[in-house]
Design a protein that fits this description.
The structure holds two protein chains of two kinds. Chain A has four helices and nine strands. By secondary structure, chain A is α+β, with helices and mostly antiparallel strands. In chain A, strand 3 and strand 4 form a beta hairpin. In chain B, helix 1 packs across helix 5. Classes of the chains: A alpha+beta, B alpha+beta. The interface between A and B is medium-sized, with 32 and 27 residues. Chain A: Component of the Mediator complex.
Amino acid sequence: MTVKWLMHFQPNQGTTLTSQVMAEACAVAESFPGVSRDGRWRSSMTFYRAVPRDQSLPAPSDLPRDLIGISLHDLPNEYLFVMRSQRLILRAHSSVQTVMDKLQSYKGRFFINFEGLQYKWGDFKLRIGKCLYNPNEALRGIVMEVEYLPLSSIDKSQRVMEEFYEIWREAVASKLLAGQFINTEVNFVEYGLGDSYTPQHTAVLYGMCVVQVIASSNKNQ
Amino acid sequence: MECVVQGIIETLHVEALEILLVGLCGAPKQRVRVHELCLKSGPNLVSSEVRLLCDLAKTTPSWTIRHVGGAMRGAGADQLSVLVRPIAESKASSTALRFFYGIGYKLDHEVLKTGFAFQFQNRGANLTVSVTSTNRMPRLHATDDAVPITPGIHLVEITAPAAPENYTEVASAIASFCEYLSPLLHLSKPGISTGIVPTAAEAAASLMSSGGGIKIL
């Protein structure tokens, strides 16, 4: 699997995130020479809650409160779980959701969809998307996934990704968007992940990014 | 959903059973070495049970998460000679055990199943016949030091995936295959023991001396 970076849009202080930002970000991507639109993309995330044996009581504190499940757009037959507090990732076939339903020990508490437009630009694929609460589709953030197709090594791709990030930041600033895109920084080693990029890396990126998106959204409301 | 029957056979007759199965199945024998961990939810969580299966027969161990539901009940189910039950399974990464510990599950017991299996089709159903010894481990996860729980006895299990619209046909396919094994062992619903078959020794001797000679299905 080739390397990805994941960024989220941080609105300027005092401004509110609107769908217009999504349109403006897409316009930035479409201004790049040689870029072509490459369809749509959609990933989804479920925040799980433990179901206590005695449901008249709140969930015990020794059970994780940060269990999330992720279905990635480019791996429809797989499902990943991330527990940030324990630096733990489980990668499984998508049928694991059926197993969790049968166990009934954890239920989906709320759901977020990431969906938007995909672009091809030379060796890069750009996916710009809205971060939407499900089912009311309230906008909580804008994210951009950047994939560098030639490389699977995180170390080897670092420089080219940084160069892209600078190009993107400058383009965004020049179009006067009311904020900036912030890259999601993760210490993959803490999760037991190596230099060779995997879906587990993507799951961790989304797990970290969504925390920042929600925090940013709550701050600006 | 799956259909399942089980039976036992004396270990000294396993070789004869293998000869019979080679002839009947027309499929290659597969080595079985599965570390099965049964986990139960902790006291704070809704009560549930899940099994993790680590296949140690391959070079790289692979993990499966498995949930076994309660047996189908009712007049239709009672009339079947096989047990029908819902099954949910998923292949998973090697972090599966840590994951379930992390979400509040505890290890209830673990066993190591060793033996062999055949996978083949009979009457359109995909059957798996496994012949295994169930072993306990003297220390946590010590699969290399496992010893048989019932020395001298092997478990024979036939399973086949099924769906609500075809489980009676699958059950029939299993039942018909069981007929071929009847000189050596009787298979029935799990939990209903039929013991050792009286003709087993004679049938085994016959198989060992003839080297098989059974018409392939």
